[in-house]
Amino acid sequence: DGGITQSPKYLFRKEGQNVTLSCEQNLNHDAMYWYRQDPGQGLRLIYYSQIVNDFQKGDIAEGYSVSREKKESFPLTVTSAQKNPTAFYLCASSIEGGHSSTDTQYFGPGTRLTVL
Amino acid sequence: AQTVTQSQPEMSVQEAETVTLSCTYDTSENNYYLFWYKQPPSRQMILVIRQEAYKQQNATENRFSVNFQKAAKSFSLKISDSQLGDTAMYFCAFIGYNNNDMRFGAGTRLTVKP
Prior knowledge:
heterodimer; A: mainly beta; 11 strands; 0% helix; globular; B: mainly beta
């Protein structure tokens, strides 16, 4: 089955700890994205990557970091510098980034992060 | 900057009836794409329908259709013959042709009542 997987589904973290959220896709998509979703709000872009070894900040990148060492994987690290990390995190991918970024984005099932 | 506005936080409809969800957006771009995504209680975001701004014809996907009014910057979603499985949050989204930053509205919570 082709798709996007995110793990874990639920994640708990103590204040001051870094935590990494996994996102893997087997759709052979070039572009990958991380969004944050808070109650009563739409999705907001954290980081995106158009190609391996390259990524760009979105609107709310502060306190987050990413890597893109493999085409299939785009992990997101929530650092202790993120002041309000409790949220639902969604990963997405699309066929291409750049000028074809208007290709449809397909989403993973999400990770719910709670800071205790 | 582009913004997307969904003015209806919640809506309800009787099963088998038709409902229309509103979306307006603000942009200075001429080429862009618009989307409606559905997020059921499972929280999986599912693409419902997509519209290219350069196409005058409104997109349709089975029971789902849009009313795209480019001059008015309006992009409403019509759901015909509503089903219980249509109960979900619905998000309108915009992306300009020359960027990677998809903008989402705050969502409309739709409840289909039996």
